[in-house]
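Recall that a protein's primary structure is simply its ordered list of amino acids. Everything else, from secondary elements to tertiary packing, is in principle encoded there. The following example makes that idea concrete.
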Amino acid sequence: MFPGAQSGPAAAAADWWTDAVIYQIYPRSFSDLDGDGIGDLAGVIDKLGYLELLGVDAIWLSPVMRSPMADHGYDVSDPRDIDPIFGTLAEFDALVAEAHERDIKVTMDLVPNHTSDQHAWFAAALGAGPGSAERARYHFLPGRGENGELPPNNWTSVFGGPAWSRVREADGELGEWYLHLFSPEQPDLNWDNPEVLADLETTMRFWLDRGVDGFRIDVAHGMAKAPGLPDMTEPATVLKHTDDDPRFNNEAVHEIHRRIRAVMDEYPGTANVGEVWVEGNEHFAKYVRPDELHLGFNFRLATVDFEPRAIREAIDESLTAVAAVGAVPTWTLSNHDVEREVTRYAPQVPETDNDDDALRAEENALGIGIARARAMAMIELALPGTVFIYNGAELGLPNVDLPDEVLVDPVWERSGRTERGRDGCRVPMPWEGREAPFGFSTNPDTWLPMPADWDRFTVEQQLEDVYSTLSLYRQAIELRYDRPEFSGPYVEWYGAPEGCLAFRRSGGAICALNATERPVPLPHGEILLVSLPLVDGMLAPNSAVWLV
């Protein structure tokens, strides 16, 4: 076990989060019960039986607070209410109560780095003018240049374009600039202002008092900005940054997390996980020290290729980072910001003028992508620590190449339509039936269109197939908890054929991966589970096995 962890089922213990399987729900895309084409809280309640069947310990809800939806909920106008698109506070309370009855914890997104431009604070800041206490809650500064016509520094937005927008003052003249590391509708808060932290503490207690079991903290490596807001020395790439980027990962952020942790400690059995996009192990470790985040999202497996050396390095680096401070490792293959693993692992399709050949090549590539994603699911579920599953991963869903005219992610427009954004991994879940919207909604006009051929991926279809990806996930999650061999905080690597890897958990479970194009002999042991059927008694290409 990890330092301080207790024994017993993950979901029942006070430290349930140390080896939990947590299922991320992107509410817009999970289940729509009111028929408007957008998922809602009633839809989540309706599918709690499915989540119980899947065997997860907890759910993480992406934002459901009041929002104008410029960034689909990550622009919060009222952090202590539910947006009518998703339902009501009463429905949220019902969700928490019904989930708890099924021994499923409920965690939700916090968005502390910024607010919506329609938040009451920002409206007050615009009205109050330069030098006011209201503007001090954000980063308002005069511009550079002879008439203030240039932004205060050269920072760019993560979504593309400049990170500053200029406001028109009460006298009608152009005036100060405000900082927004994401879209202009998401002004960054000034965390040097004590009012900002005090308000977040109020928000946390509001939800914790309603029974929430924890939070996922958006942009947890943000909030604190480099003193003096110095210029960037290197140009940034859309949706990416480095550890020494002055916009992120500044030392003062750790005191903010200590204050957040102090609130969490008032509610025993709760936990938070931070979205921490840093590369260096020493940087990551700081965020998961005993008095900061309980967990830090580790994105290494969500960004590496299907290649044994890269996978092993990602696992080693992840374990090393948390071991330095006695923290719990986390694993995920995808989320609402990352291309789905099936598509990432699929080989490139060669160009051809023959439509039939192109279709066969695409189907073959999809099949390989699904096989590799199944194998990687067994890798992550065999590892010590906490696993996050993004809704639809358990169905083997691929990314969807949506037409330009339906894209709604702000990245698309902010990047000058050079980056397609994240819509392709956010297409609604297929539940049942033969035609779109496959039981997601009664409304065929869903907020993002669903592919006509997704009947093969529906929950209904896969529950009836013992060899489906959904069945594999169910079996793997059950074995992970039922077998004592999946215990202990360590993994031991041992010899494997070229193009393969194998490790043993300290409890005795063995996991082996064959990333080659040919069958390979199995390690010694009793087989518990394989991601694909054996070939002549050997481990199939692009597959994984568990043994004891």
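The CA atoms of residues 460 and 523 lie 35 Å apart. The radius of gyration is 24 Å.
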